[in-house]
Amino acid sequence: MTDQAKEKNAPTGLALLRAPFPEHQISKLPKPTKSQTDAVKADFKKGIRCKLCGAWHHPDVVHLDYVGHAALTSRLLDCDPQWNWEPIAADDAGLPLIDGNGGMWIKLTVCDVSRLGYGHADGKRGGDAIKEVIGDALRNAAMRFGAALDLWHKGDLHGDLVDDGEGAKDGKGKPDNREQPKEAEPDKPRIATIVAAKQSLQRAVDLARLKAIWESLPKQVQTWPGVLEEKDARKTQLAAQEPDGGRDAFDDEIPY
Fold this sequence. Notes:
Elements: H1 3-9, H2 13-17, E1 26-31, H3 34-42, E2 48-49, E3 56-57, E4 62-67, H4 69-79, E5 84-87, E6 103-110, E7 113-120, H5 127-144, H6 149-152, E8 162-163, E9 168-169, H7 191-202, H8 207-216, H9 219-222, H10 227-241
Antiparallel strand pairs: 1-4, 2-3, 5-6, 6-7, 8-9
């Protein structure tokens, strides 16, 4: 397809808002467990300067892909230069109303279509907290339009479709007329995320820790190439080091 044809067929308006974000606009968000956070708080040296996100956190932290405020704002402007948001309610001073949970409801309008969203600063305070509330609310509302929906959803959005050789059908056996997703490119999974998941599994010091790391990984990451194999290989190594092959550490009926 020529560049001119690609430009002609490029999505615009609300359709553009649903287009996948390029790799360079996708950031990494560390999601430590409570025990990981407590461990680093108790001993700062148990943390590392992460090469993925730049933050200082526990070495076994799992990262999630997300689109930041700037990248989302750029996409909204591309879709509709006149886009706007407004708070659902205001306080007595006329300022956006922050609810009892520290969050704010907003209405996002793009291409004359409005949808609601909710933002929260997750315990932060001060001016930075307000900016985070706004950014979080915009991402939440934009998701209602389909923006970065593939990053919000951890499974298969069309998992109810089946193909019996005569074309895709929905769960009731009727033909599905939606455009079928293209076969994923070999490097479609986030390479950095896969590497981080494998490294976390490799660093497990015992079977219990390995199980905790595995269960903290999103289902999508667990099924990416090499991740399951890495878990099984490390499990075999650790089981050989424990009494009775580690059988006391796990219930065999648990799908681990």
